[in-house]
Amino acid sequence: MQTKELLALLQEHQNKSLLFEYKPGQTVGANYHITEVKNVTIDSVDCGAGVDFWKETIIQLWESPSEIEKTTYMSAYKALGILQKVNKIKPMEMDTEVKFEYSNASFHTAQLFVNDFQLNNDALVIKLGVKKTDCKAKETCGVPELETSAANSCAPGSGCC
Q: Which mean pLDDT values do the consecutive 10-residue runs of the chain (161 residues) have?
């Protein structure tokens, strides 16, 4: 999902509670805060010496330990207001992919992609997920496209990595 699509979704459903499902059946606690919005530029070189460049928007979610008993979720209206304020201070790139950075005591810190969203009664649920890492230079490295085994990809002596 692009940043502009997230903002439009929040705008359209301002009256709903905003929930984040970080893995199936597991949601970020109602005590979450948006603690940081990052405008990130990636300037990379892959293992096949290919260069790449892109931008992302990363929104950090944090559960406040002092509000652990909280049961009312942030509204889409409030989240939209936060993001609009950030955009006035440090303009976000609207055509970039948006990710959410999150962790808790039983879930490692991760940058999660927006896989989908769902409308439930009075809630907008943003469904997050991970994407596995991959070799971007399969052809250069001689890794068959269907091969996903770490043992066979970018192995020593393969000309990759």
A: 98 98 96 98 94 97 97 98 98 97 96 97 96 86 66 57 57
Please give the residue range of the domain that contains residue 98: 3-130
Task: State the amino acid at position 18 in one-letter form.
Answer: L
Same domain, 125 and 138: no
**Domain count across the chain:** 2
Q: What share of the chain is helix, strand, coil (3-state, %, to 5)?
A: 20, 40, 40
Q: Model pTM?
A: 0.86
Q: Beta strand 107-120 with 123-129: parallel, antiparallel or unpaired?
A: antiparallel
Strand order in the sheet with 26-27: 26-27, 17-23, 123-129, 107-120, 97-104, 51-63, 32-45
Same domain, 107 and 58: yes
